[in-house]
Amino acid sequence: MIETLLPGVQHLQNIHPLLVHFPIAFLVGATLFYFLAWIFRSNSLATSAFLILILGIISAAAAVGTGLYAEEGVMVSPSVREHLLETHEQFMLVTLGLTVFLTGWALMARPFPKKGRWLFLILFLVLLGIMTVGADNGARMVYDYNAGGNACSQPIEFTK
C-alpha cells in the first residue's frame, strides 16, 4: 500500500529522510516571523512565530530521534561516518539543544521576550547557521555517498 502512495519510500533505509525537512522549514519560518514581529512591532506575528517555533521543536526532536535510531544502520564507509555522519550528528544535537533553549525562553516570555530581545534574535540566526552546516553534512551523505538509499553499491569512500 505505502509503495503505491509513496514509491520512493521503498528505497529508504529508514524514515529519517522523511522528517528532516520539517524542522528546517519551521525553524526558518519561526526566525522570519520573529524578525517580522520585531520590525513591525506586531503581537500577532510574534504569536505566529511562537506557534511555528513549537512545531519546529516537535519536528526537530522527531528528526533527531529518528536520526539517532537510524545511525547504526546507515550503510556508509567508516571514512564517511567519521567525516560526515558524526559531524552531522553533533551539529544537529546542538541545533536541537539551542531550539529547546529558545523555546523555553519563548515559553517563559510568551510569545516574544522583551528583555534580551536582541540576544534572542541573534541566537535564532546562530541556530540557522548551525542547522545549515549540519544539514549540509546530511545532504552530502545522501547525495555524494548514497547514505539514504540503495541507488548504487556501498560503501563509497570519503573524498574531499
What does this structure look like?
This protein has helices at residues 2-5, 16-19, 21-40, 43-70, 78-108, 117-145. With 160 residues, it is an all-alpha fold. The chain is 72% helix and 0% strand. The chain has one domain.
Query: What would the principal axes of the Cα set say about the shape?
Result: elongated
How many helices does DSSP assign? 6
Instruction: Give the end-to-end Cα distance, rounded to a whole number of Å.
Output: 40 Å
Q: What is the average of the pLDDT values?
A: 91
Domains counted in the coordinates: how many? 1
Topology record:
Layout: H1 2-5, H2 16-19, H3 21-40, H4 43-70, H5 78-108, H6 117-145
Helix pairs in contact: 3-4, 3-6, 4-5, 5-6
Keywords:
160 residues; mainly alpha; 6 helices
In a nutshell, what does this entry contain?
With 160 residues, the chain is mainly α.
